[in-house]
Every structure is written in C-alpha cells, then in structure tokens.
Amino acid sequence: MSFVRILVDGYSLLHNWPELAPGRAPYCAEAREQLVNYLTQYHDATGTPITVFFDGSGRHTSACATRSTASVEILYSRQGQTADQLIERTVYRMVPHGMVLVVTDDHAERDTVVNLGGMTASSLHFISMIQQALNDVNHDIKHYNRRETRQFNRPR
Question: What predicted TM-score, i.e. pTM, was given to this entire model?
C-alpha cells in the first residue's frame, strides 16, 4: 500500500527501539539523531515522506534539538499542546489527499486516527517495516553488484 505520508510519534517509537542509543535515555539527542538516520534510509528505500512529531514543551527543545532533513520533517509541539494534537490535525488535513499512516503505541490516539480516516501501526510493527525495507535494499544492491561483476569479468 502506498502512503501519502507517514506520521511518527517520535518518543513512542524511541521508547520501543532502545538499540538506537544503547544505555542512553530514549529521549536523548543521540537517540533522536539515530532515529532520523533510520527514517531517512527508510524514506530513501520507499520514497514515502515522513514527519516525526516530538512533544517539545520542556527540556528537549534546546538549541541542539534534532532538525528536519530533506527526507524527514521534524516537528516539536509548543507549550500547551501535545504531539498527539499535531498528529491529529495533520491526519485531518492529509486524509483527503490519500492514505496516511500514523506510528504510535497510544491506543486512544490510534482510535482517533482511524476515526479520522487514517491507518495506524504499532512501533514494533513499523520497526520491522523499516528493517525489512533496508534488508530488501541491501539484497537488491548485492544482486546488482554480482550481476555487474559477472558482466565485466566475462572474457571478450
């Protein structure tokens, strides 16, 4: 299925992916940077735009906060609003343009997204989607390289 955009509850995904920054807090800058790195690779493999939402009211929005890239948009909520509110507003605006996938483990948020016309995935399911897409790309590259090597190593 093709999605118009994937919306990710950043801290929900980070809490379920401790391998991104082993031994560190899931909200640390290193974990956020690793997450953006993996999401960028996933975007490169699938071509689907990704927006990551973080609850930003508090200590995590310092000057060294993770910034958007060309592949992955990063948004922080303001004081008095939550990432969930931003996700809901975005789903509402994007659903008329096509299917939107929201990645969160918040069951109430998932129900709201489905009622708005979007689709949802758990963090663990999305992590497996990322890993599968990256494995597929690596397999394709190895296959391509073998084929190219055989082509250029043939006697003429």
Answer: 0.85
